[in-house]
Design brief:
The radius of gyration is 18 Å and the shape is globular. It is built from nine helices and ten strands. Bound molecules: adenosine-5'-triphosphate (ATP) and magnesium ion. Adenosine-5'-triphosphate binds next to strand 2 and helix 1.
C-alpha cells in the first residue's frame, strides 16, 4: 500500500531521513515513535509529499508519487493527514469543514457531500456540533472533526502526526477511541504518537526512529517488552518512567 525505497532527505547539512526502506501493507497500523527531532514528522510529510525528498521512491498503491502538479494532487488526496493542531477553517462551520474537500476537489454535489459529512461526524461522535464554528468546540471535538474531514476524501491511508499531544488529558481518549475504531475497521494508518497504550492495543507494528533512521521495526509487544537497541531502551525508560 505504501512503499518507501532508499528515501533520503536533508535539511541543509542535516540528514533527516537516512536510507528509509519501508513496506506498509493494506490495513496495517504502524506506530512511529522516537525522540524529538528524529524525523517522524518528516517521514509522514514525505509520504504525501508535503515535503520533497532528495532521492528514493515513495509509492502509494504501487504508483510512485510524482514530484508535483495535478497527478500529485490526485495521489495526495488518497492520503488523509491529521496533525497536532487541528487546522480547521475557523470561518466555516464544522459540517462545511468536512464538505470542503469533497465539493472543491472531488466535485461531489453539495447535498451529497452534506449527508456524507453528517454521517462521518456521527461516526466520530460530534454530529450534534455540525452547525457550530470550530472555536465553539473543545480540542477533542475539533480533532475528531479533523479526522472526519480527512475521511471525507475516502483516503486509502491515514497519517496521524501526534494527534493528541495538543489536547487536555481528559480529551485524549475520545480521539484515541475514534482512531482505534478506524484501525479495527481496516484502515491503513501511520501514527506518530507517544500514547503507549494505543500503540500496544491498536498497533500492528512499531517503528522506532532516531537520527533519521528506522532503528527498530517490530511488533508492539516485542518492542515494549524487549527493545533491541540501547537508544530505544533509553527512550522507553524516559517516557515510561513517569
Ligand atoms: N523545514 C525545516 N527546515 C530545517 N530543518 C527542519 C525542518 N523541519 C524539520 N527540521 C529538522 O529536521 C529534524 C527532524 O524533524 P522532525 O520534525 O521530522 O522531527 P520529529 O521526530 O517529528 O520531532 P518532534 O518529536 O519534535 O515532532 C529536526 O532536527 C528538525 O529540527
Ligand atoms: Mg514531529
Amino acid at each position: 500500500m505504501i512503499s518507501l525505497t532508499d528515501v533520503q532527505k536533508h535539511f541543509g547539512k542535516l540528514h533527516v531521513l537516512r536510507d528509509i526502506n519501508l513496506e506498509i501493507p493494506r490495513g496495517q497500523v504502524v506506530i512511529v515513535i522516537g525522540p524529538s527531532g528524529s524525523g517522524k514528522s518528516t517521514l509522514c510529510r514525505a509520504i504525501n509529499r508535503l515535503e520533497p525528498i532528495d532521492s528514493g521512491i515513495v509509492a502509494i498503491d504501487g504508483k510512485p508519487l510524482p514530484a508535483e502538479g495535478k497527478a500529485l494532487a490526485a495521489l495526495r488526496a488518497d492520503v488523509g493527514m491529521v496533525f497536532q493542531s487541528f487546522n480547521l477553517f475557523s470561518h466555516k462551520t464544522v459540517v462545511e469543514n468536512v464538505m470542503l474537500g469533497p465539493t472543491k476537489v472531488r466535485k461531489v454535489p453539495r447535498a451529497k457531500a452534506h449527508s456524507r459529512a453528517l454521517e462521518l461526524l456521527e461516526r466520530v461522535g460530534v454530529a450534534s456540533q455540525a452547525d457550530k464554528y470550530p472555536a465553539a468546540l473543545s480540542g477533542g471535538q475539533q480533532q475528531r472533526v479533523a479526522i472526519a474531514r480527512a475521511l471525507a476524501m475516502d483516503p486509502k491511508v491515514m497519517l496521524f502526526d501526534e494527534p493528541t499531544s495538543a489536547l487536555d488529558p481528559e480529551m485524549v481518549n475520545e480521539v484515541l477511541d475514534v482512531m482505534t475504531a478506524l484501525a479495527k475497521g481496516g484502515m491503513t494508518m501511520v501514527v506518530v504518537t507517544h500514547e503507549m497504550g494505543f500503540a500496544r492495543h491498536a498497533g500492528d507494528r512499531v517503528l522506532f526512529m532516531a537520527d533519521g533512521q528506522i532503528l527498530e521495526d517490530t511488533e508492539p509487544a516485542t518492542f515494549f517488552a524487549n527493545p533491541a537497541t540501547e537508544r530505544a531502551r533509553d527512550f522507553l525508560g524516559k517516557i515510561l518512567g513517569h
